[in-house]
Amino acid sequence: MTDERRPRPVFDPAIPADVRALLASAPGALTAASLPAPPAPHLGLATIAGRVLWVPAFAFFYGVLPGGWIRVFFLASLDEDDLLGGVFRWGRAALLAMMLTPAVQVLMVLLGQGEAAALLAAGSFAGWIAGTLRHLREPETARAAREYHGRYLLPGDFDRPAARLLLRAQRAIDAVLGSKAHRAGLLDAVNNSVVLPRQEWAIAEALAEHTRLRRERREQRVGRLSADVRVLLEPQRRALELSIGSITERIEGLEAYARRARDADDAFHEWRVVQRLPEQNARYRDLLAATVRDDLARDELAALADDASRAEAALRDSIGTALRSGHAIADPG
């Protein structure tokens, strides 16, 4: 769901799903499209020399020395500032190896198996070298944020009017995708899971461009320009207003679809109630037969049957209306 005041990040649906999930899981690592792309990591000569010395020392303390300094070096894990994150970035297998290997080495030495302990130390040293080199590369999230810069949009890419419109669109989309009718598959003909993210991205792209254009106009300080220059800029102002109107209409279409989905939810709820009527009717029939005249019982049961048929017809009408609204969203042309 969206925040009440700020739109959520929007991702190009063409980005692979696993990359979208990775980016969405770390919004703090993303850079607004209105800002320069993050630079590629650069290793200076001093950094390279330091790592040449540091990596073997790291592997020696982790994989060879039984006990001493392990905790100190592990908590100072590589380039992480978060100590707890530094511990768990290696995974459970590395944690177990760090805890068990020194104990096994000591036990082997005490049992007179010095050669086996040396082989274990050599293997552990090689393993920690490989693991350290793997974790020294650019973090996956940072790399994805850099490579896909411009194909995701953040709250900072939108001024206040654009953010308000995007919030309206996102709330409407969330209402449709969160509806019982959608989850039950009653709106599948619209393919909401594909169509709605495409609509959200198209709307966000247009609103980000509106924001950039408005910022440019503010920098132009139109009020201080001569009348002749303002006349030259007037077509740009009209084009922006027309585009804003078009996007607003598209968002209103999404909101109308969300309302139809809510109506379908109500009808679906009624339909589910109706599905339980046969069993309930049997109980009411037994109750009526035991307490009132047969002719009155027949009238009451007939009314219950009519309610069932009306509820089913209302569900069909509501779903049909929602689907027509969804198809209009999917094919605005």
Q: Note the total helix count.
A: 13
| Order of strands in the sheet with most strands | 1-2
- What proportion strand? under 5%
What general form does the structure show? flat
Q: What's the mean pLDDT score?
A: 76
| Estimated radius of gyration | 32 Å
Largest sheet: 2 strands, antiparallel
User: What string gives the helices and strands in order?
Assistant: EHHHHHHHEHHHHHH
Helix content: over 70%
Total strands: the figure is 2
Q: Could you name the ranges where pLDDT drops below 50 across 5 or more consecutive residues?
A: 67-73, 75-84
Structural class, by secondary structure, is: mainly alpha
Cα distance spanning the termini: 29 Å
Q: What is the strand and helix layout of this fold?
A:
Elements: E1 10-11, H1 17-24, H2 45-63, H3 70-75, H4 83-88, H5 92-110, H6 114-135, H7 140-147, E2 152-153, H8 160-177, H9 180-183, H10 192-220, H11 227-275, H12 277-291, H13 294-330
Helix pairs in contact: 2-6, 5-6, 8-10, 8-11, 10-11, 11-13, 12-13
Which key features would you list for this structure?
single chain; two-stranded antiparallel sheet
What would you say this structure looks like, in words?
Helices cover 72% and strands 1% of the residues. The chain has 13 helices and 2 strands; from the N terminus they run βαααααααβαααααα. α5 packs antiparallel against α6, α8 packs parallel to α11 and α12 packs antiparallel against α13. The longest helix is centred in the C-terminal third of the chain and has 49 residues. It starts with 9 loop residues before the first strand and ends with a helix. About 5% of the residues have low confidence.
